[in-house]
Design a protein that fits this description.
The structure holds two protein chains of two kinds.
Chain A lengths: L1 E9 L4 H14 L3 E6 L9 E9 L11 E6 L2 H7 L3 E10 L13 E5 L1 H7 L6 H12 L5 H11 L8 H16 L1
Parallel strand pairs in A: 1-4, 4-5, 5-6
Antiparallel strand pairs in A: 1-3, 2-3
Chain B lengths: L4 E4 H11 L4 E4 L6 H15 L2 E4 L3 H13 L4 E5 L1 H6 L1 H9 L5 E6 L15 H5 L10 E3 L4 H18 L3 E6 H5 L1 E4 L35 H21 L3 E4 L6 E4 L2 H16 L4 E6 L1 E3 L3 H8 L4 E6 L5 H9 L4 E6 L8 H13 L1
Parallel strand pairs in B: 2-3, 2-4, 4-5, 5-7, 6-7, 10-11, 10-13, 13-14
Antiparallel strand pairs in B: 1-8, 6-12, 9-11
Helix pairs in contact in B: 1-2, 1-7, 3-5, 10-13, 11-12
The chains are: A alpha/beta, B alpha/beta.
Chain lengths: 179, 353
């Protein structure tokens, strides 16, 4: 199994954390992991992305040209990366935020009303967890329990009371794909 | 839980420094390597008593390294391109005084203040001296977060073995990315120091003097000849490299650090199209594996060198192959990282059309 994914959105939407969380969960299952962030001006509010690769075998390059999955949380991400998704690959996008939707016919496209759902859960900050739930439903590459363990590792202890909210968001994201 | 951890390149570098029993770090923050001093100031002193000091500038930092290396301590600094330029005078002095120390350059785009994005534009500066006078640094080029850890230990060992300042030449992307790493066990800090260290005049022997000033030309030439003998020794013993699928290769892709890993992905894509491609990755940039390239040059149709600069290591590759085979170059600058597809397309354009 090798999953080559890109998570892309505005700075502050938590796209880097999505990839990182997947990476920590991958390590828990002793997978090979690379997580390559765009750093620099993006981190100060522009568009941000990270390429995350999870694999059973060694990973030659953390930089890749095409992706198995594009997770897009804003319009520029769809505009920029739709063409870079491999044939038969996936685009998962936040349908609340994205107006010009992806149109390719040779890939699987999942519209997830992430931001709208986050508002319904009364915390816009859990958008990334909703979308990560959708990601894992589409790509069941890691166990749910590894994600929960990774959450404990990534979140500083003073935020551990927020873990149930994050889990709820994640589960909701999974359900949004099932429907 | 396995002992393996997910770590950022810069943090892994800092953790390896602590575990290697490093006595002191002097540095000045600069993107994209500020995590190093952040991590050390949080972790190091409490754990090993290591000194972590933010100097007033890179010039001060490298001279603090000079001073503490003269006392036989295991010392390190890190910076990124513009900061490394400021350190060149100090590095020349340290090379002349034959002191061990480790310097990491988390290369960013230049020239000038440039950009904070990754680059390999400091290859010439790192491998050909950088400062004034006839000297070399031993230069290691990590291509993964694991090698950021392993080469800290290797770098200290080599620099101490040869009393030669050593550089880890890596780039902003490897500093910022996260990968799985396995860390080595904590090593104790040194309690005994070499017999050249200036730790106070011993009762039973002469004063120890560390200097880089030798006014008499005859004496200076002897110093130069001694340095050159040492460099020949390093060139004989310490060349390190990795080859991938070169046995049946018609073409060789080559690069260092991150560039070599992207080349490896391009090689995989090329092999899937039926091209017999192999990869050579020098792990030491000084000493450079000239003989390895020469041997391969007799067997292959061409060598394709890819770097994140305008073509620097390619000069050494051309020197190595002595015209035996065609050598072409492709590079990106300004903080742009070439993609595997882009590398393969350019290979096809240059060699197959």
């Amino acid at each position: 199994m090798t999953q080559e994914a890109i998570f892309s959105g505005f700075g502050g939407q938590g796209v880097l954390t999505m990839g990182m969380l997947l990476g920590y969960a991958g390590i828990i299952e002793d997978k090979e992991v690379t997580w390559m962030p765009s750093y620099g001006p993006e981190m100060r509010g522009g568009t941000a992305n990270c390429i995350t690769i999870i694999s059973d075998t060694s990973i030659s390059s953390p930089i890749i040209s095409t992706f198995d999955t594009l997770m897009a949380l804003n319009q520029p991400s769809v505009d920029k990366f739709e063409e870079k998704v491999k044939k038969g690959g996936n685009i998962i996008y936040d349908s609340t935020n994205i107006i010009n939707v992806p149109t390719r016919k040779d890939i699987n496209i999942y519209a997830v009303p992430g931001s709208e759902t986050a508002v319904r859960l009364k915390n816009s900050k859990v958008l990334n967890m909703i979308m990560l739930g959708s990601f894992l439903k589409v790509n069941p590459i890691l166990k749910l329990e590894s994600i929960w363990k990774a959450l404990e590792q990534v979140l500083p202890e003073r935020y551990h009371h927020l873990i149930p909210l994050n889990q709820e968001a994640f589960n909701t994201g999974m359900e949004l794909i099932a429907k | 839980m396995s002992k393996k951890k997910l770590m950022k390149g810069n943090e892994a570098l800092a953790e390896a420094m602590i575990r290697a029993g490093c006595d002191a770090y002097f540095g000045y923050p600069i993107t994209p390597q500020s995590e190093v001093i952040e991590y050390l100031s949080r972790e190091a002193t409490n754990r090993t008593g290591m000194v972590v000091l933010q100097a007033e500038s890179e010039v001060a930092a490298i001279n603090m390294i000079y001073g503490s290396a003269a006392c036989g301590r295991r010392v390190m600094t890190t910076s990124s391109s513009p900061g490394i330029s400021l350190m060149q005078e100090g590095l020349s002095y340290i090379a002349a005084a034959e002191l061990p120390c480790l310097v990491a350059n988390i290369n960013r785009g230049g020239p000038g203040l440039g950009t904070i994005q990754p680059s390999q534009g400091d290859y010439f500066q790192a491998t050909k001296g950088g400062g004034h006078g006839d000297y070399h640094l031993i230069v290691l080029a990590p291509s993964s977060v694991q090698e950021m850890v392993d080469y800290v230990l290797l770098g200290f060992e080599l620099s101490e073995k040869y009393r030669c300042p050593t550089m880890l030449l890596t780039d902003g992307a490897i500093g910022q990315m996260m990968e799985k790493v396995e860390l080595f066990e904590q090593m104790p800090r040194k309690t005994e120091f070499p017999d050249w260290a200036t730790t106070g005049k011993p009762k039973d022997s002469d004063r120890r003097i560390i200097t880089s000033l030798f006014i008499q030309p005859e004496k200076m030439e002897q110093i130069n000849l001694g340095l050159q003998r040492k460099y020949r020794e390093i060139e004989k013993n310490e060349v390190r490299y990795q080859t991938i699928d070169t046995d049946d290769a018609d073409y060789i892709f080559t690069g260092f650090g991150l560039g070599a890993r992207i080349c490896t992905k391009a090689m995989e894509l090329g092999r899937a199209k039926g091209y017999k491609i192999g990869v050579i990755r020098p792990q030491t940039l000084y000493p450079f594996p000239y003989d390895l390239y020469f041997e391969h040059s007799k067997k292959v149709k061409g060598i394709f060198d890819v770097e994140m600069n305008a073509g620097q290591m390619v000069e050494d590759v051309r020197l190595a192959v002595l015209g035996n085979t065609r050598v072409e170059f492709y590079g990106r600058m300004g903080g742009i990282i070439p993609t595997p597809d882009e590398i393969l397309e350019n290979f096809e354009k240059m060699f197959l059309q």
